[in-house]
Amino acid sequence: MVLTSVEKMVGLQKKTSGIRNICILAHVDHGKTTLADCLISSNGIISSRLAGKLRYMDSREDEQIRGITMKSSAISLHFVKGDQEYLINLIDSPGHVDFSSEVSTAVRLCDGCIIVVDAVEGVCPQTQAVLRQAWLENIRPVLVINKMDRLIVELKLTPQEAYLHLKKILEQINAVTGALFTSKVLEERAEKETESERVPDTAPGDQIYDWSTGLEDTDDSHLYFSPDHGNVVFASAVDGWGFGIEHFARLYSQKIGINPAILLKTLWGDYYLNTKTKKIMKGDQSKGKKPLFVQFVLDNIWSLYEAVMKRDKEKIEKIVTSLGLRIGARESRHADPKVHLNAICSQWLPISDAVLSMVCNKLPSPLDITAERVEKLMCVGAKTFESLPPETQELKSAFLKCSSEGTAPVIVFVSKMFAVDAKALPHNKPRPLTQEEIAHRRELAKRRHAEKLAANQGRELSEKPPSENSSEAAGNPGDTKGEEEQLSGQAEITTSKALKQEADNKESFIAFARVFSGVVQRGQKIFVLGPKYDPAESLHKLSSQCSATDDLPLVPHMSCCTLENLYLLMGRELEDLEEVPAGNVLGIGGLQDFVLKSATLSTSPACPPFTPLNFEATPIVRVAVEPKHPSDMPQLVRGMKLLNQADPCVEVLIQETGEHVLVTAGEVHLQRCLDDLKERFAKVQISVSAPIIPFRETITRPPKVDMVNEEIGKQQKVAVIHQAKEDQNKIPEGIQVDSDGLVTISTPNKQATLSVRAVPLPEEVTRLLEENSDLIRTMEQLNTSLNEDKKTHEVNQKTLDRIKEFKHKLEQNLPGRKWRNAVDQIWSFGPRKCGPNILLYNFEGYKRSVWQCLGSAVKELTKYRDFDNSIVSGFQLATLSGPMCEEPLMGVCFTVEKWEMNKLGEMLSTGSQDSGESDAVEHKQNEDTSLKSSCTDEVCSVNEHQDGSQSIPKSPEKTSRHKGEVLLADCYGPFSGQLIATMKEACRYALQAKPQRLMAAMYTCEIMATAEVLGRVYAVLSKREGRVLQEEMKEGTDVFIIKAVLPVAESFGFADEIRKRTSGLASPQLVFSHWEIISSDPFWVPTTEEEYLHFGEKADSENQARKYMNAVRKRKGLYVEEKIVEHAEKQRTLSRNK
Ligand SMILES: Nc1nc2c(ncn2[C@@H]2O[C@H](COP(=O)(O)OP(=O)(O)OP(=O)(O)O)[C@@H](O)[C@H]2O)c(=O)[nH]1
Ligand SMILES: [Mg+2]
Q1: How much is the average pLDDT of 486-505?
Q2: How confident is the model at residue 514 (pLDDT cuts 50, 70, 90)?
Q3: Ligand 2 centroid vs 65 CA: distance in angstroms?
Q4: 3-state secondary structure of 1068
Q5: Atom of ligand 1 nearest to the CA of 27
């Protein structure tokens, strides 16, 4: 196969109907990159002998060493099928969960995907995850069941067994798609139903319907994988073969004379061939017959494998000649039978043909983009498509047309930025000279030679009589010109050297993008729209016709840039392009300063930003980094910025403590980020802290039975007293703690008193809050815009329904008298207004609701109105860092049961001025001598003014306003600030009045292990406090699947340890799953004689929670109560006592 030239590719890019943008998705190690190799080798980019060994798309060194893909990368392939030519933009993606964000960036740019499943392992957790992602992006999947050779060679299954096994895998994967699909159909039905409900003339009887009918009506056949639909290929990427059943249907229809269409329908399934009647019959199993698939397909492959593995020369010869293949002597004599096998199979059933023709037949071209997908891409958050400005709505047709005409608006989506070595850019690479260039150079050399000759002649002439000076004059300029040229040439060389050196050290960022409409051209000016850009807002300021070349006013989240370079992505190589038409994947250079991670580019300001990518992984592993040499700090900071840009998922932040922190998705991701930082972006030596493990703080219900180990009531009191002692200096007033945990506390100026109680939320509610944090954030935004009386954008009915459902669910999960009306009294969520903690109000005279957006509450002005934000802020602060180790809270409900403001407070809030009130103020202040003594002069002087004696004449209103302001900011600072601090303290004390617990982040993992290593896997799990949830045997194999949960804190090195202990037979993938309460009390100390005996004085060897808590406190520089000298009496000189 010859290499396709760039010109050819450019030609193909223009034929939109022949383009297929696809990605390969699968669980880790199921063979994506190997499959990509096979497809690439069909284009001659790599040799077919190396296909599967090279792993061409894994261009990074660490990818090759570890054998896993860490980034998604694209390559364009040319495929000819019949008289049709296709351009296939193929994206290989990683399967390791740590890099699942790379999968998100890939699926956004594609129209279809190849799901690869290992024939032995079947559907794995990541397979489900990628199917879900494909589903969320509305892209169509096809299936490749890979590693078929393992069924023959490793598992040694018979063809019949293999058939049953494959059937099961198909069932599994269809079950996953089915689940996704069903929920969607039901949702759509429900939507239709609510719409029809709104239509008044629906007959009441129609409202009852059978849910299942929805499923039956919809044609879902294209969604399921079935060989007879042509969307399944059976393959072995390593051995280079693959087939869809139509190949065999065609073959056998000729051989046995059966209609190919019938054979295609029956080749997969419970059918057998009645040899006597030459008819295909149903029900193979019941009659003990061989299914067609076994007879016609698997038997052949099995016998070929057998022949080659046993080196049965005769049989091989027979097969090869009957198939009409020609095998080279080198392969057939090779010591490794696999090579021979590969040579035969890849000629007989070339995998690239099978897979690529399936892709071209079954996956859509960019022209087939559905209206549903377009609307989903265009609507961010709670907005509906109808609420977008009309100019924006018009762009939908541009998406659907995917037109490459000059008039079509350009719309491009950048899904990630990736760094390449500047040396690898096409214009920095040495390239072979073209014929014209060679001719040009030859011409130049000739001329220079001629000039030299002429100069020599001139010199000769100058030695002649001066009568011929004229020719000398003619010669000289030539000479100097030559010198000049030389000089400038040298200068060029040196500058280019300098430039090259600079380029050597530089990373260049390229945007990984796709054109959805129009033609992008090199040097074109275009708008860069950030994720928060709002076309409605900018269309007020700009006309929809304006272009990026105009001089425009500043619009938030929008900037203009020039597309400096366009590239064809060819795996490890890049090729320069002048323009790229709609429907293609491309690389764009020169966006480094405009795009951080992803963006939308358009020539029209009416274009909305695309919906953000769906990231499945939660970044959870954080480390602090610092340079080994402090002077390298600036490089490190720059490097971290670059790293942040180059990775879709990593988070880079500077903590309040001043540490530079990297947040990554897992250990492997962390390692890759650190390597990148060290070797590419910062190029300095760095030291890395131990992973910072996140915890959550919560409270539990006090135990009903006071057991010895659970004497929490007393313990807690000790803790509270202790804490109070610590904080004595900060808060002069005492706090009141009731026996049932109600904390009453006043602001420092005594103007307001709060009573707060903390109660644990039911687990289910916490989970609900966590799951719906996006929804809560949307609610918050809606409420804010309602409160500000802004023109609210039309809210998606779906979002409103979701909010209603959320509210309903909360009500359901907060039953009983204790929680009566609780849902309606929710004041706020926290921390950051969307977290898993609730603030309730439970006092008279106040009404406010987070459900405002549902229209359930009216705005009401009360005396509390002006300061309620302070209370909410105090709550937010308290939930952000708890009293145990300043970690965020989770699953706690705070109820404000009393909020008293004495008259001054009220006056401050309502702004009423009454002289009587000021007396009261004075009276109060006189009472509190300590307060008075600490009063600033200002306040005192104000009070004197109030007495009306020697005051400077002022208008009465002015004085009183002045007074109000000053009292707002008395010696304790602004009143609102005091309220915030008091609320925060109240929450903290309320927490401490209850049994506190730490919550640990938990990973889930699925480990596949054979029976021999099972014991060791359990040993490692239990050592690390893991808990096995489930253990089952994979049918047909001797592999056990163990599902377990493991605290994140104990997970570092877990995968490595398992791999080592099981000699590489088991390798788990850890996925963040949930937070779990650590049952032991971190404040527990042995108190009774028995406990001393049992646990010893220290006792913290047993107390996991305390260990965690102290570690966090130490890290944060907080006070840790621990003994420094443990066994003082035992200190002695060892040598003497020996
Ligand atoms: N027996 C057998 N092994 C295969 C086959 N295809 C791939 N492999 C092996 O499976 C391992 C993983 O292959 P990769 O192609 O790197 O898998 P991947 O899906 O790209 O892995 P990630 O990118 O890390 O998710 C390699 O050792 C391959 O040699 C196959 O058809 N048969
Ligand atoms: Mg790979």
Answers
A1: 49
A2: very high
A3: 12
A4: coil
A5: 25
Between β-strands 507-517 and 585-589, what pairing exists: parallel, antiparallel or unpaired? antiparallel
Pairing of strands 558-562, 621-627: unpaired
229 three-state secondary structure: helix
* For residues 1035-1056, average pLDDT: 84
Residue among 53, 1, 91 nearest 570 (CA):
91
CA of 237, closest atom in ligand 1: 31
- Pairing type for strands 651-654 and 969-970 reads unpaired
Residue 67: count other Cβ atoms within 10 Å of its Cβ.
12
Buried (b) or exposed (e) across 301-324, using 16+ Cβ within 10 A? Answer: bbebbebbeeeeeeebeebbeeee
Residues 6+ positions from 335 with CB-CB distance below 8 Å: none
- Point out the least confidently predicted range of 111-115, 450-454, 777-781, 784-788: 784-788
Task: Render 309-340 in DSSP notation, one character per residue.
Answer: HTT-HHHHHHHHHHHT----HHHHT-SSHHHH
Amino acid 253: pLDDT: 85
**Where does ligand 1 bind, in terms of residues with CB under 6 Å?**
26, 28-34, 55, 67-69, 94-96, 146-147, 149-150, 236-238
Give the position, in ligand 1's atom list, of the atom nearest the Cα of 63: 24
DSSP string, 473-504: HHHHHHHHHHHHHHHHHHHHHHHHHHHHHHHH
Distance CA 729, CA 689 (A): 34
Which pLDDT does position 969 carry in this prediction? 54
pLDDT tens by residue, 213-225: 444 555 566 678 9
Q: Which atom of ligand 1 is nearest to the CA of 116?
A: 19
Structure tokens at 641: 């910025």
Residues in Cβ contact with 805 at an 8 Å cutoff, skipping those fewer than 6 apart? none
Q: Which ligand has its closest atom nearest to the C-alpha of 95?
A: 1
Alpha helices in 402-434 (DSSP H): none
Ligand 2 centroid to residue 91 C-alpha, Å: 11
**Ligand 1 atom 21: the closest Cα is on which residue?**
29
| Residue 164: pLDDT over 80 | yes
**Other CB atoms closer than 10 Å to residue 1027's CB: what's the count?**
13
Q: What spacing in Å lies between the alpha carbon of 571 and ligand 2's midpoint?
A: 13
The amino acid at 109? L
DSSP single-letter state for residue 738: -
443 token code pair? 């011409």
Question: 682: CA distance to ligand 2 center in Å?
Answer: 27
Residue 874 amino acid letter: G
Minimum CA distance residue for ligand 1 atom 9: 31
DSSP β-ladder status, 969-970 and 973-974:
antiparallel
Q: How far is the CA of 259 from the centre of ligand 1 (A)?
A: 38
Q: Which ligand is nearest to the CA of 30?
A: 1
- In the reported structure, the alpha carbon of residue 98 is separated from the centroid of ligand 2 by a whole-number distance in angstroms of 13
User: What does the alpha-carbon distance between residue 652 and residue 1082 come to, in Å, rounded to a whole number?
Assistant: 31
Closest atom of ligand 1 to 53 CA is: 29
| Ligand 2 centroid from CA 712, angstroms | 53
- Distance, in Å, from the CA atom of 751 to the CA atom of 925, rounded to the nearest integer, reads 10
**25, 28, 29, best to mutate for ligand 1 pocket (most atoms within 8 Å of CB):** 29
Phi, psi of 220 (to 5 degrees): -115, 10
For β-strands 837-841 and 892-901, DSSP reports them as: parallel
- 3-state secondary structure at position 509: strand
- Ligand 1, closest atom to CA 239? 31
